Amino acid sequence: MSVTRPIHASIPSVDRILRLAAVAVLIAEYGRDAVVSAVRDDVDRLRASLSKRDGATQNEAAAEHIATRVGASLRAAAAGSLQPVFNLTGTILHTNLGRALLPREAIEAIANAAGNPVNLEFDLAEGRRGDRDRHLEDLLAQLTGAEKATVVNNNAAAVLLVLNTLAQRKEVIVSRGELIEIGGEFRMPEIMQRAGCRLVEVGTTNRTHLKDYAEAIGPRTALIMKVHTSNYQILGFVKSVEETSLAKLAHERGLPLVSDLGAGALLDLRRWGLPYEHTPAAMIAAGVDLVTFSGDKLLGGPQAGIIAGRRDLVERINRNALKRALRLDKLRIAGLAAVLRLYANPDRLPESLPLLRHLCRSRDEIEAQTRRVLPLIAEALAGRATVTVEISESQIGSGSLPADRLPSFALAIRPTVARRQASARVDALSRMFRALPVPVIGRVHDGVLYFDLRCLDNEDRLLQQLVHLSGNAKLH
Ligand SMILES: *Cc1c(COP(=O)(O)O)cnc(C)c1O
After folding, report:
1. Beta-carbon neighbour count of residue 424 at 10 Å?
2. What class does CATH assign to 104-352?
3. Is residue 299 a contact partner of residue 265, using CB atoms and an 8 Å limit?
4. Position 236 pLDDT exceeds 80
5. Residues near ligand 1 (Cβ within 6 A)
6. How much is the pTM?
7. Pick from 215, 204, 214, 217: nearest CA to 175
8. Which of 43, 117, 167, 473 has the fewest C-beta atoms lying within 10 Å of its C-beta?
9. Which pLDDT score is estimated for 472?
């Protein structure tokens, strides 16, 4: 029913709304202050939409409807803004979607550490203070061949801490080509500046020769740094020759060689038919004094930055006051340790580690899933879009192996409109999928919405919520 007389009179008072039985339930659940404030907001909005004459109706102003809306808004606020989504972007390690998914073992370890006192910095044998790194040190030393290791908030923090400890007020030599390749959110020159060291760029392009490094070494040089930005070809062990000769040069001149590996695949991924990525173990074996890498990229763990290598250097790093500011909390120590323990049985990793499961999913399996899901999505979108199965290429993401693509399959969703309207319609379609109870995130290209199913674990959950797409969902 639309408004025929001034509706101000018919908006119930806040007090009347608060006396409703349904609202009493909300007060018990969320507290009186929160409910009063939500009711006031709703009533204010009603008044505002009335004064703009944009269609508030008698119906919307009914006390019961106000109570229903207030309940929904309180529930949404209680649920918080961080929520699970479906990552159907085709990018496995999507930084915006939280990178690696943790294995069950890590989730349990985190929950356990969260709800209990733990011996985080307590030596149970001696009954006195211990060291939090102890829970990770041995595992990391075994997996990387390092003498000693430590862990901080993320890899950016690891690089910052290494540079600040070893090169403050001194010079760090880096190949210009490696700086150019980084880009994105991680800017090595800025980190260097924050760490208090001076960047000395050598070489002209990606081809930097050993003599370029040698000529740049001077009395203020603190270390030589190598930054791995991945677009390698598959050259395998041959690649470490570069590190071997760089390490030889550094050591002849009494300098450490530090390598920022970024992705940090602990094992040679070729074992599973995947592209080669430098491992910390190979780099340390090639003579690198310290490596840094992320916990939530190819390692498949929680966000963390790992520093591994020479004992004396790691000990200096641990004495830096910044270490205290950048250290890991008990939850991530528990999670990372659980993930590292899974590496003891590499043959089981493709099942136990979600990251590796997604990396290893076969093209055939993804195609079969895509064909299975297609008719249900097509039906839910009936008349609004056509849906087809297309060949796709998944990316590993997060700066890991950017040149490598994994063959995959995607649903291609094309709005059934003239081409010139396609872009607006495809935006509306993606919005509709993002508004589902578990938002579905795809990739839009050239007026088409693509869902790459490589990372679709919970197919049933995706299909169950398709009902919300039919019915009253609008495309405008
Ligand atoms: C990703 C990356 C970083 C930053 O790592 P975070 O864990 O995201 O802080 C640094 N260096 C390289 C080479 C990287 O690939």
Report:
1. 14
2. alpha beta
3. yes
4. no
5. 154-156, 186, 227-229, 260, 262-263, 294, 305, 398-399
6. 0.89
7. 204
8. 117
9. 47
